[in-house]
Design brief:
The complex is a heterodimer of chains A (about 150) and B (about 90).
Chain A: H1 2-9, E1 16-21, E2 28-34, E3 44-45, H2 48-60, E4 64-72, H3 81-85, E5 93-98, E6 105-112, E7 115-119, E8 140-141
Parallel strand pairs in A: 4-5
Antiparallel strand pairs in A: 1-2, 1-4, 5-6, 6-7, 6-8
Chain B: E1 2-6, H1 9-12, E2 20-24, H2 28-38, E3 57-61, E4 64-65, E5 81-86, E6 89-90
Parallel strand pairs in B: 1-5
Antiparallel strand pairs in B: 1-2, 3-4, 3-5
Classes of the chains: A alpha+beta (about 150), B alpha+beta (about 90).
């Protein structure tokens, strides 16, 4: 919820932040909204100084940065070619928040060597997803029990 | 000059999973050279072939981004902490 609020607050620009928890684990323990250093509606860049601070705080508490989230203001919650090209960590979760429609849609992906694999998402407070999610089925829309949009048009 | 180098998760796999390694070097470039010599899997991921910093990496010496100091020529004080962070960006 904090993540979605940060994304809505960042409009008209893309907003972003970091997920902290166990590297390679499934669940983020903490969300750290950060500045979009690119200050753009088309691209994002985690403010490096804020990233350093989050990284230090995470390590001090025995955790690691284990993913990143950012918003797409006018497109699907699916990684853009730029997202894929710049995804460096095969162990991270790359979370997309689409603000295109009335209800924000949250989806999560692993991006390994340019290959995108969708992961199920559970947003606290919105109930659990049914298990065994296939691609195109893992997103959750705020305010609705569940919205999965088949297909991944950009 | 001994310096602690904090590694991002993506590079730790090349260092046996270690989050921090201790290396010697008088400049940022020397330390990074030792890093790659010690852990060859990191070759090309932090420093480019011409010795300049890879554009998808940010290097902090204590609290300062070395790009705003003297880059790879930045002197490393003894006991300094160097942090290697991926530049996290997309579209």
């Amino acid at each position: 919820m904090e993540m979605i609020g940060h994304c809505l607050g960042g409009l008209p620009d893309e907003a972003c932040g970091l997920l902290v928890g166990s590297y390679g684990g499934e669940e983020a323990d903490q969300i750290f909204p950060t500045k979009n250093a690119a200050a753009s509606a088309l691209i994002y860049e985690i403010d490096p100084k804020e990233m350093l601070a989050v990284d230090r705080q995470a390590q001090a508490s025995g955790s690691d940065i284990m993913g990143v989230f950012h918003s797409h203001t006018h497109t699907d919650a699916y990684p853009s070619p730029t997202d894929v090209a710049q995804a460096q960590d095969p162990g991270w979760h790359y979370v997309l928040v689409s603000l295109r429609d009335t209800h924000p849609v949250v989806r999560s992906y692993a991006i390994v060597d340019g290959v995108i694999t969708e992961e199920p998402v559970v947003v606290p407070g919105l109930g659990e997803e049914p298990g065994d999610e296939g691609p195109g089925d893992g997103g959750q829309a705020l305010g609705e029990p569940r919205v999965g949009e088949p297909g991944h048009s950009r | 000059m001994a310096v602690e180098v904090r590694l991002p998760t993506v590079l730790r796999t090349y260092a046996g999973g270690a989050p921090v390694v201790t290396l010697d070097g008088a400049t940022v470039g020397e330390v990074l050279g030792k890093l790659v010599a010690e852990y060859p899997g990191m070759a090309g991921q932090v420093v480019q072939a011409d010795g300049s910093l890879h554009k998808f990496v940010n290097i902090y010496l204590d609290d300062d981004d070395v790009r705003y100091l003297d880059g790879v020529d930045t002197p490393v004080p003894d006991g300094a902490e160097m942090s290697i962070l991926p530049a996290v960006a997309g579209g």
